[in-house]
Amino acid sequence: MTKASILEPGKSYTFRNYFEMAYEPDDILAEFDVTLERRSLTLPKASGDFDQITALKSSLQSRLPYVSLTSEAARREILIAPIVLTLIDYTQAQLRIEYAINVSEQLKGALDYYLHTQHSLLIIEAKNADLARGFTQLAVELIALDQWTTSAEPFLYGAVSTGDVWQFGRLHRQQRRIEQDLNLYRVPADLDELFQILVGILTSE
């Protein structure tokens, strides 16, 4: 039996609209002929001495007791932005903040953080500290990015973050499948491993 369409014909949708939808992520992605698979991903990891991360971790641990993280802006400025900026130091990635793209009436909006080298990495923060709905928005943005970019990479990577928790996703472009990592990375506790993955995605061949 054919399901009724979630998206209304002729109606305009932004990425934010998908975060606000009460539908299951599988059903939303099916609107774009993309499937969803939840599993533990083996993600690229960079090796090396990331000395700035040791200092950043120490700084976060000493400051967090004094900072309220109840707002989206606080999470972005205190927890997400310092990691993104340090990532540039190690990868020389190009950074776009609030990067607007318009693929279609159903796929448009601003990407919170978009970094690219030879590979692509999209990072967004989950609104209202809601990781589950944030991942749905991330998945739709990866679908849009697949049509927007001329990159020939077989995978597109993304991460959704509430600031203190990160989760990765990957779009398998040929198979039209979003893979949601079951693993979560906490900040500052798992910052070392998180940073190895972020650098690995941007620098691996």
Structural commentary:
The protein has a single domain (49-203), classed as tt1808, chain A (Alpha-Beta Complex). 37% of the residues lie in helices and 26% in strands. The protein has six helices and eight strands, in the order ααβααβββαββββα. The protein has helices spanning 15-20, 25-30, 51-63, 72-91, 131-148, 191-203, and strands spanning 35-39, 94-104, 107-116, 120-125, 155-161, 165-172, 177-181, 185-186.
Could you give a quick summary of the protein structure above?
The chain is of the alpha+beta class. It is built from 6 helices and 8 strands.
Count of structural domains: 1
CATH class term: Alpha Beta
Mean pLDDT equals: 93
> Judging from the principal axes of the Cα atoms, what is the shape?
globular
H-E order? HHEHHEEEHEEEEH
Strand-pairing-aware structural class: alpha+beta
Strand content: 25-35%
Topology (SSEs and partners):
Layout (H helix, E strand, L loop, with lengths): L14 H6 L4 H6 L4 E5 L11 H13 L8 H20 L2 E11 L2 E10 L3 E6 L5 H18 L6 E7 L3 E8 L4 E5 L3 E2 L4 H13 L2
Parallel strand pairs: 1-7, 4-5
Antiparallel strand pairs: 2-3, 3-4, 5-6, 6-7, 6-8
Helix pairs in contact: 3-4, 4-6
